Amino acid sequence: MEPLQSLPGTEDILPQRQSAGQAIKVADVTTWQRIEAMGRDILQRAAYQEIRTPIFELTRLFERGIGEATDVVGKEMYTFLDRGERSVTLRPEGTAGVVRAYVQHKLHGQGGVQRLWYTGPMFRYERPQKGRQRQFHQLGVEVLGSHDPRADVEVIALATDFLQALGLQTLTFHLNSVGTTADRQQYREALVAYFTPYQAELDADSRQRLNRNPLRILDSKDPKTQAIAQDAPSILDYLGPDSQRHFDQVQQYLNDLDIAYDLNPRLVRGLDYYTHTAFEIQSADLGAQATVCGGGRYDGLVEQLGGPATPAVGWAIGLERLSLLLEQLAPPPPNPVDLYLVSRGPAAEAQALRLAYQLRQQGMTTELDLSGAAFGKQFKRADRSGAIACLILGDSEAEIGTVQLKWLQSGEQIQLNQTALVNEAATWRQKLAAARNSQE
Model pTM? Predict the structure, then answer.
């Protein structure tokens, strides 16, 4: 029978292993764990609280929230009827679900500003390529309840801190303002007037967007359309006084924090709910899919989804693209195994199971060989495990309650009492840590 394969656009995130001294090239779960741990630490220190929302929602949430004229809703959503004949969609992004939860559970009734963050899988039916999958993962933040431009800059600063803490330096921060709904309506009319004479020369998607969502033409990847768009009107010339003041303050606060940015009036986000600030953080190391982080302000979305008028701002980071960047920096360190425990014979194997359990309870990472193979093969696996030391339990050790400890780097071997090893775990943790530090 032919083995089953994962669906196109999905990936298995595998544990790291080393073979013959060389890491197997896989989507490494240790890289993901590092990203998630760093994000959790930075966001918790900024007083953000985690929120978890369902992976699927009613389709109309995304139609109303994202916009029916967007490519996401029109072309990319995984939508189906459930057994209750409800139209259901796997979430294509995180913000709409967070806002739905904010409204449904009346978090606005708590007063003040709600600082929330989330992480998890999202789904869009796109052409799979480097850094873009049909099931992809995001980590995102949402700040609900503040008009203040400082909220915009706070979330931007958190994104830059997060990426820099992971070791990423060669990133470009693009900044724009898309103004209010009224600003965009005037700008929309100007774009339609500009692009209409070029209609026959635009790519097919841009021709469809011309009267439906002309701002999205600016985001076209078609070279000919990009060339035409070079001389298109700038949104910055259509900002009203309030929008301009807000954007000026955002820029001033970014300058105060020494966060470098490039003004990019061609930057438009692919979702209809954005207002005022829009931004992206990009990496030249990712090719066409250069955006690592994208976000902005969405002051009308809460009201649009049935809640009170509530200003909000946030961003999302694509974890697949981020993990690709981190793998280019350096391979992640191997999983730290303290002890690799080998055993042979019924009595020894029973004692080894108990000893591994006890050592793990004492805080030592212990891998128990379960193969039942000859000692020689078990020793080879111990050498490949990355462990600091190998514990050896045979019939003679089982009979008198001892275990042999072999330091894998030096080859030095000593005999220990099993009970004493467990009781003196704090001392042995220090010795193992010191040995690991000396190897690094």
Answer: 0.85
